[in-house]
Amino acid sequence: QVFDLTQTEKEQPSIIRSLFRSKLHRIAAAAFTIIILLGMASVFMLNNQKPISNDNLFSIYYQPDAALLIRGNSDDKMLIEGFQKYENRDYSGALLIFNQILNKDPNNIPVQFYAGISNIESGKYRNALKPFNYISSHNHNLYVEKAKWYAALCYLKLEEDKMAKELFKEISASNSSYKYKAKNIIKSLKE
Fold first, then answer.
1. Which of 45, 164, 174, 191 is 20 to 30 A distant from 136 in Cα terms?
2. What is the DSSP letter of 76?
3. Counts of helices then strands in the chain (DSSP H, E)
């Protein structure tokens, strides 16, 4: 068939134009395309779904605790300096000072706790367990709940699933503010 090139585009016959002449056909074609793409995407995602790794769970749930505000006299100078380093994210510097304080006063629960967090932030997860377990064994203090949570996260990071699950189960059975997070982690670990 020969076409006159002087004809406007509207006058020229077109297979595509004839197929999509009405709005209804255009809408139906768009909807059909979207349905096909969504179906392909869901099949792809279902086939490639992998369980969440312990590292990913740790990354999702770990948040370092905010530093304490310390005000005091010159006797607290070392403590103030340690928390300033912690607040400035100099965790290895804070850890050095916290360890000096703990050598003189191992019963200092807040310093034990922040030494544990500083160890986590320094990538020393096994070392972080010592202060958290110490705090948990001295059951009557304000840091027990947090210490158990962070210890469980350390066990998770260390791939010690049995110990992590035990602590997460204990947390989920309590009235802890971490209760629902612990339940979610347990569900993820079962998969």
1. 191
2. G
3. 10, 0
